[in-house]
Specification:
Layout: E1 2-4, H1 9-19, H2 24-35, E2 44-49, E3 53-61, E4 70-72, E5 76-84, E6 87-93, E7 100-107, E8 112-117, E9 121-125, E10 130-133, E11 137-143, E12 151-160
Antiparallel strand pairs: 1-10, 2-3, 3-12, 4-8, 5-10, 5-12, 6-9, 6-11, 7-8
């Protein structure tokens, strides 16, 4: 997992450029981020480079942690960017097996396995930071940061590994 902290969103993007040296699909995502207004993306899926790089935009209400599920992906890395609002994303390394339980088997069509998480790290996401999650990262998005929650507009780049 890579977390670009609040004071370095632009510097954090350079991480994607570096990852592009290992996997060119990250470089495609990096250039798209640099050259497009993410707020103008339509809701739903936007194809950037066939099945190798695409982005999903969604708007939702953040939820109580008990209403959220963890997930992992095997074919894609996630680059998760909150455009407006804020949320916590729960995080565990997949090796911490005593802290989560699988509740849905791997769905190859959706590239996702679902989990219930116990104690986990909470990463605050807002419009000034982002995270990259890899196959060994159990992550749980959409967690509210206060008692009411808030509307979150988020994009998730899916980068084929």
């Amino acid at each position: 997992m890579i977390f670009a902290p609040q004071d370095s969103f632009k510097n954090g993007l350079a991480i994607l450029e570096e990852l592009g040296k290992l996997n060119p699909n990250f470089l495609i995502a990096y250039h798209y981020l640099q050259n497009n207004d993410l707020h103008k993306l339509p809701l739903g899926r936007t194809i950037i480079e066939g099945i190798n790089v695409y982005v999903n935009k969604e708007v939702y209400q953040s939820k109580e942690i008990t209403q959220c599920q963890g997930e992992t992906h095997y074919q894609y890395a996630d680059i998760q960017i909150v455009l407006s609002g804020e949320e916590f994303i729960g995080y565990l390394d997949i090796e911490e097996k005593s802290k989560y339980q699988q509740v849905e088997p791997y769905n190859e069509d959706k590239d996702v396995t679902k989990y219930v998480l116990g104690r986990c790290s909470l990463l605050l996401h807002n419009s000034t930071n982002f995270s990259v999650f890899f196959p060994n990262d159990v992550h749980m998005p959409k967690i509210r940061t206060n008692t009411e929650g808030c509307e979150v507009t988020k994009i998730v780049f899916k980068v084929r590994l």
